[in-house]
Every structure is written in C-alpha cells, then in structure tokens.
C-alpha cells in the first residue's frame, strides 16, 4: 500500500487519456452496436427479421454507412466480436469504414453474466480469461477502447454486498488488463430499472455501487484519466407508480455522480436501458442543463435509444435501407444536441432546450 | 446495502451544506487556532512565553480582535475546547466575538493519537466516546463545525493497510456523529512530510489514503455536501534531495484530489504542515491557478502558516499586541488572495519564509 510499482509509462497514459477525450469530445457520444448474437435475436424478432449473420451484417451496415452528419455526433462505436470482422457490400471492413471517418472503434470484451451462488438471483460477469491476449489482438485489429457490462438489480434484498464488491472487482480487473494493452476501458455497472422502487432508492443504490466501483479501481491501480464510465441514469423502477420530471431524473443522476465519480474520469456515457429514444435524449439534455458543477463530460452510449426507429423503418427490406439510416442519423444528431444541453425536445416537450430546475434538489 | 435508512432530514442536510459553503466562500479560509495545551507549549516556549492559561488567552485574543479586514478572508476559526469558553479582556466570550462577525465557529473534537499495536509506529485517533453528547453541547455553545485529525506516515513500510483502513474508518464515524448533531465535520487525514521520499511517492500515498477515506465515508452514509476535507498538499518529504517548483506541487496535489475527492465535497482546506507562511501561500496560489478542472473550493486551514509571524512579533509583550495582530492580518489577506489564485509573492525574506517544520508532528 506504500510503494508504487509502475503500471503504465507516461506515453501509455497519454495515449489512453487522449483516446478517452476523443471519444467524448464536445457534442459526441457512443453508438453501442455491440449486441451479442442472443440480443440481436430479440431486436430482429421485433421487426420480423431472421437472426442470421447476414442480416446482422446488413443492419450494422445501415448504421455504419450513415453520411458525414454523424461524424460530429459519434465519437466511438462499440462492436460485437463478430461485427469487428465483417465487411460492407463493397468489401470494406466495417472497422475501416468507421476509423476512416475519424470515429474510434471499441469492442465488447465481456462474456456475459453468470450466477452468484447463494444470492437472490444475482450475477457477476465473466471474460477475464485470456483477456490480455484478446485485447492485444483487438488493438492490432483497430480497436482502441473496450466495454464490459456488469448487472445489478434492485429488490427487497438486492443488491447484496457480495454482488456489489464482486462486480466492482471484476470491472477493475477488466480495466487494469485493458490499459496494459493500450485499450481504454468503458466500465458499465448497470443497475436494472426493473422493479417498483422510487427515484430515491435508485439514487441510493447507484451511489453505493459507484463508491464500490471507484474504490476497486483505486485498489487495482487503474489510471482514471484513461477510462470512461457507462452507468445507468438514476430513474424510478419501471413499475413505480410515481412519475418524475426530466429535471428530477437529471438532478438525481448528477447528484449521484457528484458523490462518487472522481473528476479525473474524463467522461460519463449514460446507457439508455429501457428508455425510449426520446426519453433518453430528453433526460440527457436535462442532465446537461443541471445547475450543479459537473467536472466530467456527460454524454451517451446508447444502443436501443439510437437504433429502434432505424430497425422499425428497415424491417429487413433492402428498399428501406436509406430511410432506416436516416432515422439513425436523426437520433444521432438529437443526442449530439442533448449532450450539449441544447436539445429542445420532440413532440411531447415543446419548450426550449434550457430546462428550469427551480427548487429541484436531491439532498 | 440496498435500503436507505435516512441519516438526515432534508432540512438537516440543507443546514450542513450551507454552513460548509459559508466557511469556504470565495476568498475565505480557516484559521486553525485549535492547538492543544501541549502544542501551545511548543509555540510559546520558542518565543520565551510561559505556557499558562492566561497567556494562551491573551494570545488568542490577539488573533480574534483583528479588525474587519479579516472578515473577507476568514470563513471559520477552529477552537480548542479551553478557548471556546475563554473571554476577551472586555468579558466577551471568544465564541461570540467570532460568531458576531459572521465567521463560523469550529471546535477540535479528537482526543489525540494512540498507537496501533503491531505496526511500525503507526497510530489511530481516539475521541469517539460520548462524541455525540459533546457535539450537541458544542452546537449549543456556538460551534457549527468540528475538526478531527488523523496522522499517517510515509516510510519503507508505512502507511500500512491497517493504518489506512483504521484511520479512514474513525474519520467516517466521527463525520457521521457530527452530522447527526448539526455540526459540519472537517475530515483531516494528514500524511506527514517527514522522510526523504519524492513528490511521486507522496502523491501515490495520498491517492490511496483519500480513496479509502471516501469509501469509508460512503459506507458510513456521510452526507458529502455537508463536509470539508483538510488534507496535506502533495509535497516531497522534508529530507528529499530533489527540489520541486510550486507548480509541480500544485499539479501533483490537484491530480491526487481529482482522482479521489468526489465533486460533492464542498471544499478542500489544506493544512500547512511544516511549510513556511510564504511557501504555504505560494503553493495555495499555484493550486488555484492549476489548469485542471477543480470542482471544489481549494483554500486554507492554516495554523502555523497564519500565526508564526504574529507570535514572533508579539513575544508575550503587552506593547507588541497590535504588531502581532497586524502580522496575522497580513497573512490572512495573503491567503485570501491565494485562495482566489491572485496572490503575488512579495519576496521570501523574513519570518514568513522560515520553515516551520517540526519532526514527527503530533498535536
């Protein structure tokens, strides 16, 4: 605890830090296109498309062939392993398509959740075996950042102390290994929105989870300036009877971050969870307008909230591809505004982008 | 870990946060006048003054009767128990004297360091017994904040894991009890400058210590917005052969804080340790002009670095009281400017530049 044994050279730190900063440059966020084969099954089933490798390739192509308008909105794209080695119809590797437009390539590196015996349905995430070698290979193949997702649930008995410490530990191990291989870790301690708990409960749990995460990061000697956080926004549970305004969600989210995330972390890229595209954008906008001091970039790392409309427009039909791409571009531009606090809201929110917080405070 | 049992009401939180904000209002810092009887001996003996209760009273009066020029530089004064109940020559309670000029009254509540058996000369701090009742009484008697000092040392084998955890835990217990009684806790995990270690080593140890402190504060459900941190600046050890500029000290200090102190903490009030008055001001100024994002107030909580010249000018002489007070005002103003990043060092001659290092300092 008393002597420092160097983990990274100055050059390595600089590279990691600069990569992290580029991903979250002003107005930019992350497109999370890393749905596993199993997750893609759920997405494609909803629009009546068969879950084949070709269909997955075609859908990602719809996203990646968006025009230059997304260059100022998307700082990074997270790939699933399979997608990292796929090509466009013209034979151009997806990785090259993305990199050539100045967007950084990331890869999902975890291998899914596994149960924690003796808990009430809780999990940890596996994927550490051979992770160093995999990271080194991904770096050669064009990736500069990685994402690792852990899952926690709120219930009467959850999350337990074990689930919190075990998931925090595995996120820190992942981060440490990634950084050794020049890969910026995006750590995702997702607290699911399932349940009927209220906003306060989610805020409390989020604060406890993130405190544990950053203690683990410190214990594992992770270089915070070369990492990013992908947390849930603080929201009520899906079946919570109480409704909350975007300002309340924003205030609770920012307060939780202020109480736990050290300023050295360059950026916080919120996941969208089960939120609709519009909800996610409006919340992100309110977060950026929250009047408390926010020393990190606050942006997006959205999967569904960037892709749902595109999927629905496509429905697997070649003739719908351009329309589908347009839907994606629209959401990318909206979220680019939202992460700067400049989004004036869609149909349900007719006012100007600047939200008034009034006496809203989350003590 | 999953349900919140409210520690404080919204009103209690609001009060604590407002007190903390008042103490570290822009341009203001803390006068640490809480030297124990034993420590006062070390101050008074070198200037040939006998360590009597009356002399201690006369000396503190010299500080507390400074004119309105200090009202814009001093946000709070930390008292020792004895002093809280002493009066001026006019029969006015010192606590009232200070409170009436809108300076917040604070009180040292720890009861000194005790050894940790099985360690290499390490300590923890006692004082938790009956602390709640003592805080309630101090609050009635005019105090709104408290201070508790823990001590850690850098050597080949220290600080040990036990010393870090034990001191972090005791600071968190103290903070929790204070807040229950409407008292803002100032948390002081001092890492002594004794030793020949370099700047990097101090930075590393400071980061580990502070990470543990904030994890403990989270575990103990402490309301961070209603606390202040009193850390050491990151400096090389006193016998370190390498010299470092104040910019290097500032960068190391701000970096360590950015990696560990959540933005929710209202202010960081540095201790001066063994630094000379001028050094302490110049370093504080560099800290405030450091180009990294700093979401907390960064100011002073100085004892020796505000009083050394005053003591030297006074030397116990009734006719030199005004001169002593004047020296104090000068340093208060200098540090008020330093806390805003506006201090211009006038030169290093005189008592202000003399190092105030005392080996193995324990109050």
UniProtKB/TrEMBL annotation, chain A:
<keyword id="KW-0456">Lyase</keyword>
<dbReference type="InterPro" id="IPR013785">
    <property type="entry name" value="Aldolase_TIM"/>
</dbReference>
<protein>
    <recommendedName>
        <fullName>Fructose-bisphosphate aldolase</fullName>
        <ecNumber>4.1.2.13</ecNumber>
    </recommendedName>
</protein>
<dbReference type="GO" id="GO:0004332">
    <property type="term" value="F:fructose-bisphosphate aldolase activity"/>
</dbReference>
<comment type="pathway">
    <text>Carbohydrate degradation; glycolysis; D-glyceraldehyde 3-phosphate and glycerone phosphate from D-glucose: step 4/4.</text>
</comment>
<dbReference type="InterPro" id="IPR029768">
    <property type="entry name" value="Aldolase_I_AS"/>
</dbReference>
<dbReference type="InterPro" id="IPR000741">
    <property type="entry name" value="FBA_I"/>
</dbReference>
<keyword id="KW-0704">Schiff base</keyword>
<dbReference type="Pfam" id="PF00274">
    <property type="entry name" value="Glycolytic"/>
</dbReference>
<keyword id="KW-0324">Glycolysis</keyword>
<comment type="similarity">
    <text>Belongs to the class I fructose-bisphosphate aldolase family.</text>
</comment>
<dbReference type="GO" id="GO:0006096">
    <property type="term" value="P:glycolytic process"/>
</dbReference>
From TrEMBL, chain B:
<dbReference type="GO" id="GO:0006096">
    <property type="term" value="P:glycolytic process"/>
</dbReference>
<keyword id="KW-0704">Schiff base</keyword>
<dbReference type="InterPro" id="IPR000741">
    <property type="entry name" value="FBA_I"/>
</dbReference>
<dbReference type="InterPro" id="IPR013785">
    <property type="entry name" value="Aldolase_TIM"/>
</dbReference>
<keyword id="KW-0456">Lyase</keyword>
<dbReference type="GO" id="GO:0004332">
    <property type="term" value="F:fructose-bisphosphate aldolase activity"/>
</dbReference>
<comment type="pathway">
    <text>Carbohydrate degradation; glycolysis; D-glyceraldehyde 3-phosphate and glycerone phosphate from D-glucose: step 4/4.</text>
</comment>
<dbReference type="InterPro" id="IPR029768">
    <property type="entry name" value="Aldolase_I_AS"/>
</dbReference>
<keyword id="KW-0324">Glycolysis</keyword>
<dbReference type="Pfam" id="PF00274">
    <property type="entry name" value="Glycolytic"/>
</dbReference>
<protein>
    <recommendedName>
        <fullName>Fructose-bisphosphate aldolase</fullName>
        <ecNumber>4.1.2.13</ecNumber>
    </recommendedName>
</protein>
<comment type="similarity">
    <text>Belongs to the class I fructose-bisphosphate aldolase family.</text>
</comment>
